[in-house]
Amino acid sequence: MKTRKQLPQFSHGSISSLSILKSTYKTSGFSGFYSGCSALAVSNGFKSAIRFFSFEASQDYLDKAFATEKGNRNPWINVLAGLNAGVVESLLVVTPGEALKTRLIEDAASTGHRRFAGKGAVATAVIVIREEGVRILWKGVLPVLSKQATNSAVRFTSFGMMQEYSAKQWPSLANGVGATLVAGALSGVITV
Asked: How far is residue 186's CA from residue 182's CA, in Å, rounded to a whole number?
């Protein structure tokens, strides 16, 4: 619904979410609610892998470069490593994935010829690149980069701070699954 409300054919006036739901079902059936899902699922898998890999690699590099006494981590390391993770995931996965997801949703909302009907993320990418060129996958990269870099910086910094705090306050629970889940959930709330 969010993406469809942002599409030109739905952005005029005050069309309700219920109207979009009805229109989606009428034009595309139940599967229309999942248009763009394949691109989103594939990009989220890659995005998470790249985000965590680039964060860990950056953190390791920065730990060596800015080691403090007693082995304590400089608090800016998580900020910088998080920013880097957001930049890398934006360039490699998020911007192209969003471009494909938006085209799939726009195509599913179309009442005319649907060029991506029944096609997944890879087939859609091939068509888009052939018809519009590869550069179109990175249209809007600067806003995406700004969003992802700051999100990752805040997410990883707050997560790291909560892990350090819980390790000091409750050493026996610090590395447990529950503490990690709570810190992860709270850092997600803080990021939003």
From this structure: 6
Residue 176 lies in a domain: no
- Residue 120 pLDDT > 90: no
Q: Is 141 exposed, middle or buried (0-12, 13-18, 19+ CB in 10 A)?
A: middle
Domain count, the chain: 2
CB atoms inside a 10 Å sphere around CB 152: 27
Classify residue 74: in a domain, yes or no: yes
For the stretch 77-116, what's the b/e string if a residue is b when 16 or more beta carbons lie within 10 angstroms of its beta carbon?
A: bbbbbbbbbbbbbbbbbbbbbbbbbbbbbbbbbbeeebeb
What angle in degrees, to the nearest 10, is found between the helix axes of 141-169 and 95-109?
A: 120
pLDDT given for residue 54 in this prediction = 94
Mean pLDDT for 66-77 is 74
Whether residue 82 lies inside any domain: the answer is yes
Same domain, 143 and 58: yes
Task: Answer yes or no: is 76 within a domain.
Answer: yes
State residue 15's pLDDT score: 75
